[in-house]
């Protein structure tokens, strides 16, 4: 894949090469002019803002569900988990209609808001926070700490492994999102990287090297994020399996 993407001499149909025939960035440049750069920028903006809001909202929701006692907490958690059982295709049309009435089609908020309330990080963080000893929270309250201080200085630092796991899953979910941009985006300037790569794959005018160069750009961030957060990701999975 890498060899074909950076090969100056494109391979023949059905031919597989293991080393580029003269290193060249021409395929990447062609894909960039096709709109790959704008798609990459849009995806990075949506990823940065969406993942930050997703993890932040999920952490606050999980803290309330795990550490606070209120009537209907179990029903709320069950309702959140029920959304995980619904495929995107089921809520696609209602979501499109709601965003249309709010004038959020073809906008960054329209692409970001639907991914903020993902149920998986709420579920993972709630289970993790429930296993944090209550004595730590009680000791902090004796020292005069309020809910926000306990959350930021006690609960959140202890939840870093679970947050790392949620960040990896959340990044991959947002980065590989296809159906949502397909419904919301109406102009080339708002196209995400997945839409651009899909258009390149369907184009009969572009060669195999251009298509693979675009696919390589789509793959690299996911690999880098996993390698960068690998330790937190593994710690989160292992701590959940051991304590569970």
Query: Into how many domains do the coordinates divide?
Result: 1
Number of helices: 13
CATH topology group: MetI-like fold
Residue ranges: pLDDT <50 for 5 or more in a row?
A: 240-244
Gap between N and C termini, in Å?
A: 41 Å
Instruction: Determine the CATH superfamily.
Output: MetI-like
Mean pLDDT: 85
Instruction: Give the helix/strand class.
Output: mainly alpha
Say how many strands there are.
Answer: 0
- What Rg, in angstroms, do the CA atoms define? 22 Å
Query: What is the CATH first-level class name?
Result: Mainly Alpha
What characterizes the major β-sheet? Answer: none
Q: How do the helices and strands follow one another from N- to C-terminus?
A: HHHHHHHHHHHHH
**Residue share in helix:** over 70%
Overall, the morphology is elongated
- Strand percent estimate: under 5%
Level-2 CATH architecture: Orthogonal Bundle
Explained architecture:
The chain has helices at 2-5, 26-67, 73-82, 88-101, 108-116, 119-130, 134-142, 147-158, 160-175, 179-184, 193-202, 208-228, 230-243. Residues 240-244 have low confidence and may be disordered. It is mainly α. It has one domain (2-243): MetI-like (MetI-like fold), CATH 1.10.3720. The two termini are 41 Å apart. Helix 2 crosses helix 5 (108-116).
């Amino acid at each position: 894949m890498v060899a074909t993407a950076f090969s100056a001499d494109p391979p023949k149909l059905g031919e597989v090469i293991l080393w580029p025939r003269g290193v060249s960035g021409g395929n990447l440049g062609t894909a960039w002019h096709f709109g790959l750069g704008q798609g990459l920028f849009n995806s990075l903006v949506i990823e940065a803002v969406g993942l930050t809001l997703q993890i932040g909202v999920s952490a606050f929701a999980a803290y309330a569900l795990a550490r606070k006692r209120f009537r209907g907490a179990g029903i709320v958690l069950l309702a959140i988990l029920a959304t995980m059982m619904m495929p995107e295709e089921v809520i696609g049309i209602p979501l499109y209609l709601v965003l249309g009435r709010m004038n959020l089609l073809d906008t960054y908020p329209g692409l970001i808001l639907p991914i903020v309330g993902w149920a998986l990080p709420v579920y993972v963080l709630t289970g993790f926070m429930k296993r944090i000893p209550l004595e730590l929270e009680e000791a902090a309250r004796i020292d005069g700490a309020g809910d926000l201080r306990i959350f930021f200085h006690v609960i959140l630092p202890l939840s870093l492994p679970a947050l790392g796991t949620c960040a990896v899953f959340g990044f991959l979910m947002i980065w590989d999102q296809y159906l949502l941009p397909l419904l919301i985006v109406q102009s080339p300037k708002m196209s995400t990287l997945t839409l651009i790569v899909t258009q390149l794959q369907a184009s009969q005018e572009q060669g195999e090297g251009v298509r693979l160069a675009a696919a390589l750009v789509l793959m690299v961030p996911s690999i880098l994020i996993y390698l960068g957060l690998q330790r937190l990701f593994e710690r989160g999975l292992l701590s959940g399996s051991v304590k569970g």
